[in-house]
From TrEMBL:
SUPFAM superfamilies: Ribulose-phoshate binding barrel (SSF51366). This is Imidazole glycerol phosphate synthase subunit HisF. GO terms for molecular function: imidazoleglycerol-phosphate synthase activity; isomerase activity; oxo-acid-lyase activity. Keywords: Amino-acid biosynthesis, Cytoplasm, Histidine biosynthesis, Isomerase, Lyase. IGPS catalyzes the conversion of PRFAR and glutamine to IGP, AICAR and glutamate. The HisF subunit catalyzes the cyclization activity that produces IGP and AICAR from PRFAR using the ammonia provided by the HisH subunit. GO terms for biological process: L-histidine biosynthetic process. NCBIfam families: WbuZ. The keyword Cytoplasm applies.
Length: 258
């Protein structure tokens, strides 16, 4: 069985590391992305996710520069996304130093792009990111363009379709829980765990060690964490130790160099 993964998630806006609540509220500047990545590397996290949340031609150049500097300084794989629309975009990010590329809005607009990218670069290089929001107590719907546009897609069915298109993994991000630190969407995790065959990373809501435990025990392959690592004293080392004490199969090395 694959080991559970701990993955800090970076949101970049104009090259700055930022954090919001529910995608749009309460912007906080969270430091230098390269310096912060080096700290996490020393903590021995498993991977890093870097998303350009307001992509443009200018921001793409900044992101490529940032991940180029990260790849020179850190020793862990990272996934990069934001505004990825073509095979050329995927190639540019991989050449800049990314190990995997995340596709979101373009996958919805042109699903065959996922298959084409997986065929060209390998399934293991392609992550599909799905942002969703609850509408009522049980129904949820997909949103694209950074949570700005609602589309008539059920996130569970869309995740299963992306698996059929040969993506390597799925990143499920709850807009409602993003930045709230009130816990992951366990209902969504439980539902997808029973049906999805590729690894699932969950994002949105982690504010305590128990929240991460709950998500991983519910079946998530990995937890993406932003606010808790940036704004509390819960470090990746502390979380990894706590997970191991609960019997969850996580890496025990204190450094990702090993």
């Amino acid at each position: 069985m694959l080991k559970k993964r701990l993955i800090p998630k970076f949101l970049l806006r104009d090259g700055r590391l930022v954090k919001y609540t529910c995608f749009f509220d309460n912007e906080r500047i969270a430091g230098n992305p390269v310096t912060t990545a080096k700290v996490y590397n020393d903590y021995g996290v498993d991977e890093l996710i870097v998303l350009d949340i307001v992509p443009s031609a200018a921001s793409r150049a900044r992101v490529e520069d940032i991940i180029g500097r990260m790849s020179e300084e850190i020793f862990m794989p990272f996934t990069v996304g934001g505004g990825v629309k073509t095979a050329e975009d995927v190639n540019a990010l991989l050449r800049a130093g990314a190990d995997k590329v995340s596709i979101n809005s373009e996958a919805v607009r042109r699903p065959e792009f996922v298959r084409e990218a997986a065929r060209t670069f390998g399934d293991q290089c392609i992550t599909v990111s799905i942002d969703y929001k609850r509408i009522g107590s049980h129904h949820a719907s997909v949103y694209i363009d950074g949570g700005r546009e609602h589309v008539a897609l059920d996130p569970v069915e869309w995740a299963l379709r992306c698996e059929d298109l040969h993506c390597g993994e799925i990143l499920m991000s709850s807009i409602d829980r993003d930045g709230t630190m009130q816990g992951y969407d366990l209902e969504m995790i439980n539902t997808l765990t029973k049906r999805l065959g590729v690894p699932m990373i969950v994002s949105g809501g982690c504010g305590s060690l128990q929240h991460a435990i709950d998500a991983l025990e519910a079946g998530a392959s990995a937890v993406a964490i932003s606010s808790m690592f940036l704004f509390t004293d819960h470090s990746p080392i502390k979380l990894r130790s706590h997970l191991a004490s609960r019997g969850l199969d996580v890496r025990t090395s204190a450094s990702s160099r090993n």
